[in-house]
């Protein structure tokens, strides 16, 4: 028996206004694009047509349908147990980054392959490059410490020919490094994006997953199933998000002239104060905080640059003048 039907707004107002996922999922059209989704679609406890978001296979198949319908991705898959990203939130990051570049480019979004984005932790899904290529025609360097993730992203690129030539994958040989071993002296990166490991330990990651599952299910469970997946390095690292971002900021200073904007997601608001202190100690010239939200979840992007006004102007004139929208 279904519970009292929820009243849902037609538009998810907290998502970016260019986000293709602001409206509720149209499962009829998604099934037209991906027939494999049909068995997973049924009324939920509120009587709404949906999928079971605690079922990893259902979530992955929904992603396949969304990527095919909205981004023209015909062949997409990830290895079992790897992070299956919630696409609306990932798309939001890319659109906000486009606005960040727009604000540095006289109100014009720089587009095309001359715009190079560095995705730190591209994962097995290749999701940020896919969205950035389709929406803005950017080129990407995707990095990861996991060879299986690199191989999976490579397969996605090979199986979707229009992505070829837009995305280069680089294996990070040293787990503690972010930019070292990746950015070369010839690279000129317009913006870096990163979804850092959130948890401080495997135990914390597992506890977080159980909380998610118990929020999704009416019945409480102590059985661990990762609905959105995630290998250890995707979900946690020593010191969690806070330590990872501090290390990123410290290393970014060494590549101050190689990247216009550095950026990262910050999930925990309590980490912001120390992030700002770290950026001040690194002598970042400009720092931006961009709020993001989806449903009840609130997060933000923190972006910084070491380029002076003169250096920024020279960068724009030499690299962005042909990439305007």
Please specify the SSE layout and strand pairing:
Elements: H1 27-33, E1 42-43, E2 49-50, H2 56-71, H3 87-103, E3 116-120, H4 127-136, E4 139-144, H5 147-159, E5 167-171, E6 189-194, H6 202-216, H7 232-235, H8 240-252, E7 259-266, H9 272-281, E8 286-294, E9 297-305, H10 309-320
Parallel strand pairs: 3-4, 3-6, 4-5, 6-7
Antiparallel strand pairs: 1-2, 7-9, 8-9
Summarize this, please?
The protein has 325 residues and is of the alpha/beta class. Helices cover 36% and strands 16% of the residues. It has a single domain (87-320), classed as Rossmann fold.
Mind explaining what this structure looks like?
The chain is α/β, with parallel strands linked by helices. It has one domain (87-320): Vaccinia Virus protein VP39 (Rossmann fold, 3-Layer(aba) Sandwich), CATH 3.40.50.150. It has helices at 27-33, 56-71, 87-103, 127-136, 147-159, 202-216, 232-235, 240-252, 272-281, 309-320, and strands at residues 42-43, 49-50, 116-120, 139-144, 167-171, 189-194, 259-266, 286-294, 297-305. The strands form two sheets. Strands 5-4-3-6-7-9-8 form a seven-stranded mixed β-sheet, with helices on both faces. The protein has a two-stranded antiparallel ribbon with strand order 1-2. Helix 5 (147-159) links the parallel strand 4 (139-144) and strand 5. The longest helix is centred in the first third of the chain and has 17 residues, at 87-103. The protein is globular, with a radius of gyration of 20 Å. The termini are far apart. Mean pLDDT is 87; it is low at 204-210 and 224-228.
């Amino acid at each position: 028996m279904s519970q009292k039907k929820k009243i849902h707004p037609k538009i998810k107002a907290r998502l970016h206004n260019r986000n293709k996922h602001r409206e509720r999922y149209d499962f009829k059209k998604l099934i037209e694009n991906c027939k494999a989704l049909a068995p997973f679609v049924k009324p939920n406890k509120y009587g709404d047509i949906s999928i079971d978001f605690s079922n990893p296979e259902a979530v992955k198949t929904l992603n396949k349908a969304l990527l095919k319908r909205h981004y023209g991705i015909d062949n997409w898959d990830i290895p079992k147990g790897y992070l299956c990203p919630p696409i609306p939130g990932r798309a939001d990051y890319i659109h906000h980054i486009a606005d960040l570049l727009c604000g540095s480019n006289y109100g014009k979004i720089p587009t095309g392959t001359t715009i190079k984005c560095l995705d730190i932790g591209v994962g097995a899904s290749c999701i940020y490059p896919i969205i950035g290529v389709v929406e803005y025609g950017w080129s990407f360097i995707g990095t990861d410490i996991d060879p299986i993730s690199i191989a999976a992203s490579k397969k996605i690129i090979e199986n979707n020919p229009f992505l070829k030539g837009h995305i280069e994958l680089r294996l990070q040989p040293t787990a503690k490094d972010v930019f070292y071993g990746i950015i070369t002296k010839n690279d000129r990166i317009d913006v870096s994006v990163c979804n850092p490991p959130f948890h401080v330990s495997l135990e914390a990651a597992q506890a977080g997953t159980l909380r998610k599952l118990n929020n999704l299910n009416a019945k409480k469970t102590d059985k661990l199933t990762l609905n959105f997946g995630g290998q250890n390095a995707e979900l946690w690292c020593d010191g969690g998000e806070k330590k990872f971002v501090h290390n990123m900021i410290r290393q970014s200073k060494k590549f101050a002239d190689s990247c216009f904007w550095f950026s990262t997601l910050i999930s925990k608001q309590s980490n912001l104060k120390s992030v700002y202190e770290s950026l001040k100690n690194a002598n970042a010239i400009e720092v931006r905080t961009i709020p993001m939200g989806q449903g009840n979840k609130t997060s933000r992007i923190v972006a910084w640059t070491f380029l002076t006004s003169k250096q920024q102007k020279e960068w724009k004139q030499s690299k962005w003048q042909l990439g305007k929208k």
